[in-house]
Amino acid sequence: MLNFICPVCKKELYTKEKSLLCENGHCFDISRKGTVNLLRTGKANHGDDKRMVMARKTFLDKGYYEPLHAVIRETAAEYSYDGCTLLDCGCGECSYTADISRHFISKNINAEIIGIDVSKEAINCAASRHSGIRLAVASVFDIPLPDKSCDIVLAMFSPFSGSEYLRVLKDGGIYITAYPLEDHLFELKKAVYDEPYRNEVSDTGVDGFELLSQKDCKFRMELKTNEDLISLFEMTPYCYKTSKTDREKLDRISALSVCAEFGIAVYRKK
Q1: For the chain, what are the domain ranges?
Q2: What are the tens digits of pLDDT across the range 224-268?
Q3: CATH number of 44-220+259-269
Q4: 153, 176 in Cβ contact below 8 A?
Q5: Residues 151, 153: Cα–Cα separation, whole Å
Q6: 171-180 burial, b if ≥16 CB within 10 A, otherwise e?
Q7: In this predicted structure, what is the pLDDT of residue 214?
Q8: What is the H or E stretch that residue 73 is in?
Q9: Which residues neighbour 19 within 8 Å (Cβ) at sequence distance 6 or greater?
């Protein structure tokens, strides 16, 4: 089993009773849910708050993003093998990670799966998803894993941390990422904003990696209840960037047809 490394001194962490300790005496408690907080900061809360985490869980558990889930789990399986290690950077409440883990089991792929996220609320929620995932509160910009220890890095809509991905990936390791395309959720934006904007899609070139494949995943979602519409809105960054007046427009909508549009890219470490 791959051990975490200490966020303070970068030495390997070992389990002792209900804690993780390194040879320099730095100690990190293991929670009752089996997670550990390896975030180096004095700030109390980071990343997605409980409201956003629960909105995402509520929405994704209803299967609206199943076409994307299918592409991600099949892509991960394509590049996996027995004994490989997959790290989900910015795993959130682990909807995608848990789906991959279950898919690997169905394919008889024995893999170690690790998820990290800066949000303690997200990791607490993730702990109830699937027992086969090791979880830590940690930043993608300071990944608590040794150099060249991972075969696959997955990053679903999380901040890009190229230098850390290159550090933890083995030579020839795989980086899989998903990102919103230009018209993703445009109908939702039209329902809220007077002047809705389209997303900017950046170049798929990534320093230190070669692009192996890129595909689009586009599908339409028929949101049949206001509850589902609100959950979709609250799981996005729009929720905290929208005025109260614009937000209240959603309360008057009982159903909405919305397009989801994603790009999925696969890279290999050079």
Answers
A1: 44-220+259-269
A2: 999 999 999 999 888 888 898 988 999 999 999 999 999 999 999
A3: 3.40.50.150
A4: yes
A5: 7
A6: eebbbbbbbb
A7: 95
A8: helix 66-78
A9: 27, 28, 29, 30
